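Input chain follows. Return structure tokens only.
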Amino acid sequence: MTSFKDEIENDKMPAKLRVLVGNWQRKTDRAPSNDMLRRAAKDVKDNSISERQAALNYGVPRTTLKRYILASSPEKQKIGTYKGVTRYKFMPKDIYNTDESRFATVQTPGKVVSSLGKKKVGATTSQERGELTTIACTINAAGNALQPFYIFKRVRWNNASLNGTPVGLIGTAIKTAWMDTEVLSNQNLPFLITNSRCSQDKPVLLLLDNHVSHVSLKTIVLAKNSGVVLLTLPSHTSHRLRPLDRTVFGTMKIFFNGALDDCMRSNPDRSIYTYDTEALYACAFVKAMTL
């Protein structure tokens, strides 16, 4: 007497029963087997049946089957290399990534330790709704980091905004506190060019996302004349490909929240404003950039 598994492998089971068994296996295993995907993809590639019919016959999701076929195609297996790496012969110290993230003056409180059986346990925050500040960071593949660039939510710039920060740090004031084309081309990119000491004879590679503020004509012309090769990441992939998102910003926000918690415990009777956070940003930045 043959089992269901033997009948499926030998293609002796009726199509409708195969669908029922496949649905049961999918609900229990939560994922189609590689053998089922391989056999379904083989039938589609041989042009014997369509993707929809193969998904029904083998009990696999149609979207999963389609992605499996695309991933196993010869065109997808030929992984290309960015030609600029071999053309310019970039070293790790010449490959930079610039990105920005927003920080608020209202922290997310961490876990609170209390005695057993206590009903009400809470933590203090600075304000109900705080102010946002954008911090643009730049790192390279060698593990080095440039000074962060601050974008404060203000109309006019005040030098007191950088009190308690390291020497050489710069910033600007914008009404929206977002990175825009003027800030990138007039301040942030020239700051990178000055500190990386790049030129047309010694270019550097700068990785950016596809945001509209990063691909303006003024930025491209400045980068080309200064020896900065711009490479933008594909849409909807930056959260996986950007080194700063993957390794720095999450850790930096944890350290910044911890610094705000310590500040609130030391000063429980006052709120924290933007002028009080510059030194906390710098401290969190140094800890997050430590290898």
